[in-house]
UniProtKB/TrEMBL annotation:
Binding site for (6S)-NADPHX: 62-66, 126-132, 152, 251, 311, 358, 421
Species, as recorded: Pseudoroseomonas ludipueritiae
Name of the molecule in the record: Bifunctional NAD(P)H-hydrate repair enzyme
Pfam family, one: YjeF_N
Keyword Lyase (UniProt): yes
Length: 483
């Protein structure tokens, strides 16, 4: 079933804390939420582990409070549980109440205590992490050699960025509450979390709605694919133009084949020279091929979407062509050579609809990537006015207005030459069908990941694929997006 945009919302730790405050201000009970959170952790844990010597590492805040609840609930079921507290909760807090209800063993927070555990519940810090993890907390988590279940996030993981602050342990399971955080999806956080369970702990809808989310998990529901009706004709499904050069003609062809398969009514490969035009004419019969120069095609206003960059040389001429197309008011996806040609000059990309840099291209255009890649992608979008797809295993799609989506359905086999060309073609094909740039970029990234997932269905982990394998899967990916 397609999730609603609100179910796809990601809240940062600060936003989640605001929801928490709104819930309490609206009459929700803090201790009840804590009991629900602890119960959700205990439930998820019992489903996956058998009773064994379990150590709860409890921090001083509400994350620790959740931990005391887990301890009590597991012990009630006969699990051998003990607690090691890093620091006592603040007197009078909800966590102090939960700690007071724990009557089982409290062990010193030492390496010896840890060495006896067969399972560790990390309830040290969650949304309240305010500085780098250091001292005994970091030392204890570094020493864990048994499965670790994280409450909310592995302690030390910054839920806003997915980056560890100082250190964060590898969890087998992370149970979080209400909404996912960007850090559950952004690398390395996604991998440090292990399996992620999102638990409903009864946070009131009004409290959740009091914070307008700016980040989302990328999935159908965040966008809708274009519809087709009897009144439509090929021109109403848009005309994509893709200049291609002799150096890497296959890149433009992959983009063109993808744009067609995702529903563009017409796709033209605009050859840079006559030899390339001859080569392109040997391609798919349904592809249109035009003789050089590509800019002659600008006279036809129906050529509304252009994909510029796959296989084009990173030369000033490529950037000049991009400027002419942008100034003619066309929707442009800038990729590959067009991005590299703009190295150190992000303003030259202004007016493009979508930019699709991988990390290397991003650094060339916008400068060294900061650790907070979500913020970096948003900055790039704000500077250029374009939707920026910062590609990778956790592609970030950022809009100039601050909205961002994080894609998490792309298998690592996509790291193969030409797969970015397919993505650029999908984005161009969807822009041509009048999807707004953010929706087109998000849909393209998701369909790309889904096509790869379908191509690998039933294959052992690590099975490779090539970019061409994505093409026959695009129809099934489309169907999956519209179910
Ligand atoms: N969001 C919600 O609506 C709910 C949140 N709950 C839990 O509450 C947690 C957040 O609780 P808090 O806001 O109390 O925050 P935490 O419990 O995450 O941490 C806050 C405490 O840790 C200390 N601290 C922070 N970083 C530190 C560091 N690097 N080294 C040493 N000490 C450090 C702070 O001084 C403070 O005492 C969530 O992660 C979740 O587990 C649940 O209890 C139920 C509901
Ligand atoms: N480890 C990975 N896991 C999942 N997807 C990946 C991974 N590495 C790259 N990708 C995806 O593969 C595509 C590669 O694009 P790019 O590097 O531009 O390749 P090319 O230019 O050769 O086509 C991007 O969509 C990117 O998000
Ligand atoms: K934690």
């Amino acid at each position: 079933m397609t999730p609603s945009p609100s179910a796809l919302a990601l809240l940062t730790p600060d936003e989640m804390a605001a929801v928490d405050r709104a819930a309490i201000a609206g009459g929700a009970s803090g201790p009840a939420l804590m009991r629900a959170a602890g119960a959700a952790v205990a439930r998820a844990l019992r489903k996956r582990f058998r009773p064994c010597r379990t150590l709860i590492l409890a921090g001083p805040g509400n994350n620790g409070g959740d931990g005391y609840v887990v301890a009590r609930l597991l012990e009630r079921e006969g699990w051998p549980v003990s607690v090691a507290a890093l620091a006592p909760p603040r007197p009078g807090s909800d966590a102090a109440m939960a700690a007071a209800e724990w009557r089982g063993p409290v062990l010193p927070f030492t390496p010896e205590t840890l060495a006896r555990a067969q399972l560790v519940v990390d309830a040290l810090f969650g949304a309240g992490l305010s500085r780098e993890l250091d001292g005994p907390a970091a030392a204890a988590l570094r020493a864990v050699r048994v499965p670790l279940v994280a409450v909310d996030v592995p302690s030390g993981l910054d839920g806003a960025t997915g980056e560890p602050r100082g250190f964060a342990p590898q969890a087998a399971l992370t149970v979080t509450f209400g909404r996912l955080k960007p850090g559950h999806l952004l690398l390395p956080g996604r991998e440090l979390c292990g399996e992620v369970v999102l638990a409903d702990i009864g946070l009131p809808e009004a409290a959740l709605a009091s914070v307008a989310p700016r980040a989302f998990r990328n999935a159908p529901g965040l966008w809708r694919l274009p519809e087709r009706g009897a009144q439509h004709h090929k021109f109403s499904h848009g005309h994509v133009t893709i200049p291609g050069g002799a150096a890497m003609p296959g890149a433009a062809r992959l983009a063109a084949m993808s744009a067609r398969r995702i529903g563009a009514g017409l796709v033209t490969l605009a050859a840079e020279d006559t030899a390339t035009a001859t080569l392109f004419r040997q391609g798919e019969p349904g592809l249109l091929v035009s003789a050089p120069p590509p800019e002659d095609l600008l006279a036809d206003e129906r050529r509304s979407a252009w994909v510029l960059g796959p296989g084009l040389p990173p030369r000033p001429e490529t950037l000049a062509l991009l400027r002419r197309v942008v100034e003619a008011g066309r929707h442009v996806v800038a990729d590959g050579g067009a991005l590299t040609a703009a190295a150190g000059q992000p303003h030259t990309l202004q007016g493009a609809a979508i930019l699709t840099p991988h990390a290397g291209e991003f650094a060339k255009v916008f400068g060294a990537l900061r650790r907070d890649r979500l913020a970096a992608a948003r900055m790039a979008a704000a500077v250029t006015g374009a939707v920026v797809v910062l590609k990778g295993s956790d592609s970030i799609i950022a809009a100039p207005d601050g909205r961002a989506a994080i894609n998490n359905n792309a298998p690592p086999a996509l790291a193969t030459a030409g797969s970015g060309d397919v993505l650029a073609g999908l984005a161009g094909g969807l822009l041509a069908q009048n999807l707004p740039p953010f929706e087109a970029a998000c849909a393209a990234a998701w369909l790309h990941g889904q096509a790869a997932t379908l191509a690998l269905a039933g294959a052992a982990p690590g099975t490779p694929l090539v970019a061409e394998d994505l093409l026959p899967q695009l129809r099934a990916a489309w169907i999956a997006a519209t179910r």
